[in-house]
Design a protein that fits this description.
It contains five helices and six strands, in the order βαβαααβββαβ. By secondary structure, the chain is an alpha/beta fold. This is DUF523 domain-containing protein.
């Protein structure tokens, strides 16, 4: 089994606005250590595009010129790099709740929290089939 892990679950330094959740990395690694899995840390499209930044809603990210194309190209590059690793392994995506890019359930659009997938998750779903665990 191969686990696609949202980048900031291992590296909280890249999270928007400097947000930090004490103990989350340790709890996640403890949980994953109980299973025979391989972990692949995904790139963070928000950080790779803008570096350190303030929090933005999904609609703001979608309005930034070039961002959606950047995310699509990042997903293409990821697919090329991991196809040989994946082979016949089952895939699981461990995502971030309410993230504009990595959420699998709810996202912020303007001042509302609405049902929806993150920008990055939508691109990954075009290229891979995986089960989902959303981490809050």
């Amino acid at each position: 089994m191969l686990v696609f892990l949202s980048h900031c679950l291992l590296n909280q330094l890249v999270r928007a606005g400097g947000s930090f959740t004490p103990g989350v990395t340790g709890r996640l690694l403890e949980l994953l250590s109980k299973y025979p899995v391989f972990i692949y840390q995904l790139p963070c499209p928000e950080y790779f595009f803008l570096g350190l930044r303030e929090k933005k809603t999904q609609d703001v990210w979608e309005s930034i010129p070039g961002f959606k194309d950047f995310v699509s190209n990042l997903a293409d590059d990821l697919e090329k790099k991991v196809r040989q690793i994946i082979k016949d392994k089952d895939l699981i995506l461990v995502s971030i709740a309410r993230s504009p890019c990595c959420s699998t359930g709810m996202v912020h659009r303007g001042d509302r929290l609405v049902k929806g997938r993150g920008i990055w998750v939508r691109e990954l779903e075009k290229r891979f089939k995986f089960d989902i665990i959303e981490f809050d």
